[in-house]
Design a protein that fits this description.
Distance between the termini: 91 Å
Order of helices and strands: HEHHEEHEHEEHHHHHEEEHHEHH
Number of domains: 3
Strand order of the largest sheet: 7-8-9-10
Strand content: 15-25%
Number of strands: 10
Number of helices: 14
Oligomer: single chain
Helix content: 40-55%
Bound molecules: zinc ion
Length: 305
């Protein structure tokens, strides 16, 4: 009696979604049953001797076809970790003893690993360590704080990361917080850290309301459009509704900046694209204010109020 296609699928699921023919054989699934399950669309053949459940995410399937497991940025993406840049290809973790397979449309980025890997994707902490080597400090730090904010990682996971990253980057792990409000905040805090500048986010200022960031005592940083990709605001641009909304927002921003100035605050306003893609300009604008001490409460008495 062949094993039913549904049961083959269930056994595959219990084996983390991906199973070797030998593992399935031990559970009583013969080659004929396996073929029936493939024909029924319950499982797919990923490479010779390896099968996966049909609804396995496409990136995971690619990683297994490549001969490894989903790793690095691609692994983080599965859990919705915030990334500065979405990966254009699938990042695959391979054991050093493993063999790379050539499959159709392979644009994979291979990461070699010494650790024993199990399952179709590496652990989150391993993926974060890979990101540091692959994309560098900023992408690593932003992803780490996102994983912490979403509670996808535990304190012991953080410790494992700290012990595995090169010594020079350990301070970066220590600098990461559990309560960063957004990826943008992580990026700004990291970039300003190089100048010894601390940043507070989502601060309520009496008379003004909630502002995105405050640098020092009184330099407000507002970053517009940071939610664009989430809210689908982009798709509204060009419509009458969007123009009216933009005009009304601009008026509100001007009022806010005037009120902030009246209370002795300085305001710098950027948009998300400027912060991410034109940092030298943003940095120069911030440092020009900081160099004149405009972020600190004035020590000289003003005209009095
Ligand atoms: Zn990578
Ligand atoms: Zn590949």
């Amino acid at each position: 009696m062949p094993v039913s296609a549904i049961r083959v699928r269930r056994l595959c699921t219990e084996l983390s979604g991906v199973a070797r023919t030998s593992e399935l054989a031990e559970l009583g699934v013969d080659a004929y049953s396996l073929r029936l399950a493939v024909d029924a669309g319950e499982v797919v053949r990923l490479r010779e001797g390896v099968y996966g459940v049909a609804d396995l995410p496409a990136e995971v399937q690619t990683a297994v076809r490549h001969g490894g497991r989903l790793g690095c940025l691609s692994r983080l993406g599965i859990d919705g970790v915030w990334l500065l840049e979405q990966p254009a290809s699938v990042h695959v973790a391979m054991m050093r003893t493993g063999r790379r397979r050539f499959h159709s449309e392979c644009r994979c980025i291979t990461h070699w690993s010494d650790s024993r890997l199990a399952g179709p994707a590496v652990a989150l902490d391993e993926a974060l360590v890979q990101v540091l080597g692959c994309r560098g400090e900023e992408e690593f730090f932003v992803a780490l704080e996102s994983a912490m904010r979403k509670r996808l990682i535990t304190r012991s996971g953080i410790e494992r990361i700290r012990s595995r990253v090169p010594k020079v980057h350990r301070g970066l792990v220590g600098f990461a917080r559990w309560d960063a409000d957004s990826g943008l905040e992580s990026l700004l805090r990291l970039r300003l850290r190089a100048h010894g500048l601390a940043l507070a986010s989502q601060i309520d200022i009496p008379g003004i309301g909630r502002v995105d960031f405050v640098l020092g005592d009184r330099l407000i940083l507002e970053v517009d459009g940071k939610q664009n990709h989430v809210d689908g605001f982009d798709s509204l641009i060009g419509t009458e509704h969007a123009r009216a909304a933009a005009a009304s927002k601009r008026h509100k921003d001007l009022v806010r900046d005037a009120v902030a100035a009246a209370y002795g605050f300085e305001t710098l306003r950027f948009d998300y694209a400027l912060v991410v893609h034109d940092w030298p300009l943003v940095e120069a604008a911030i440092l020009a204010k900081v160099d004149r001490g405009l972020h600190l409460r004035s020590r000289v008495a003003g005209r009095g109020r």
